[in-house]
UniProtKB/TrEMBL annotation:
Pfam families: Citrate_synt. The keyword Transferase applies. InterPro entries: Citrate_synth-like_lrg_a-sub (IPR016142), Citrate_synth-like_sm_a-sub (IPR016143), Citrate_synthase (IPR002020), Citrate_synthase_AS (IPR019810), Citrate_synthase_bac-typ (IPR024176), Citrate_synthase_sf (IPR036969), Citrate_synthase_typ-I (IPR010953). GO terms for cellular component: cytoplasm. This is Citrate synthase. The lineage of its organism: Bacteria, Pseudomonadati, Pseudomonadota, Gammaproteobacteria, Oceanospirillales. It comes from Reinekea marinisedimentorum. GO terms for biological process: tricarboxylic acid cycle. PANTHER family: CITRATE SYNTHASE. Belongs to the citrate synthase family. One of its GO terms (molecular function) is citrate synthase activity. It comes from the Bacteria.
Amino acid sequence: EGYFTYDPGFMSTASCESSITYIDGAKGVLLHRGYPIDELAEKRDYLDVCYLLLNGELPNDIEKRDFHRTVMRHTMVHEQMHDFFKGFRRDSHPMAIMVGVVGALSAFYHDSLDITNDRHREIAATRLISKMPTLAAMAYKYSIGQPFTYPRNDLSYGGNFLHMMFSNPCEKYYVSPTLARAMDKIFILHADHEQNASTSTVRLAGSSGANPFACIASGIAALWGPAHGGANEAVLNMLEEIGDVSNIDEYIARAKDKNDPFRLMGFGHRVYKNYDPRAKVMKETADEVLSELGITDDPLLNVARRLEQIALEDPYFVEKKLYPNVDFYSGIIFKALGIPTSMFTVLFAVGRTPGWIAHWKEMISGPYRIGRPRQLYSGEPTREVKE
Ligand code: CMC
């Protein structure tokens, strides 16, 4: 049989052709459909970016109104989903719940499973973007034993999410426009990142013809690991463990020690060998949120700032081009907003949903084949089974 190249970890293999997102890792550039990420985060809202990723262009006023209306109209989930949640242990990790409930959407919405039908594909895409924040907030409410909060379609996408997280029947949460905007920005910064592990997983699952809900559930599962989306949770745990600026040197030494598996969470990236452009916006957003909330002297933030400063100057990190990545500052914002650490990766999943769908849609809209990597077999040669 023919030859194939061996490329563990896909260090040099392009798995597809795509016109959605461009990254220049050496220069620290990230473009969605040609638009720089920082400009999108500054000038547009999250649903505009979802529209852009899915359709290739930013929406005009009418398209924007229609898209926003459609997405916000489908925010509720089937009431039976409430019972489905109740099957989980009450101390389940919210990512475990998300893998389950998003996959289960395929059992609830039979009118969006036919991937050869344009209408089905459209409905599935909208439903996923509409319902992800609802499911995420439900996973949180379930974990703290509070009743689910229904969505409010008059709020912005980010504002509605905060409402569902923090309102309860006894107390309505005031959604500050600054915090709602910050939430929206965070979602924008996570919206897509070309062929990362979870997006490649979605494409691979989709290449078999699996339905969109099943594909996105597979993406959520792949995102969970600490080397990928799970890093934002790991960053906060690490900052808490470091605890004080005076302990940083010890952790830096551990990160550099070849015999110690410890890594500085929130640093390094397979593609970026320069400052992650999303981390820049995330840092500014962190400053906005902390100033809105009147948090001036946060110990974790002090540890984070000092850690970043040291890492940017230390020869080990400089030579290996290990810059802070998107996950480094997002955790600080989430913490300031009162979002528990276990929800951090869930928020990454909510933000990444349009990217996953855009890639799935792009793939199944063109000619594609089932993804089927080969291997180098290193096991036993043929041997006889003894009786
Ligand atoms: N702390 C200390 N050393 C590091 C780190 C780190 N965070 N990251 C990489 N290195 C070292 C690593 O030990 C290796 O050294 P050597 O060449 O001497 O063996 C070198 O840098 C290259 O690392 P690698 O693991 O071969 O690089 P990779 O491209 O396979 O991994 C990464 C990329 C993001 C998994 C890795 O940098 C990492 O584990 N970072 C910490 C976790 C993290 O922040 N993940 C979030 C990534 S961004 C968002 C996302 O994708 O979800």
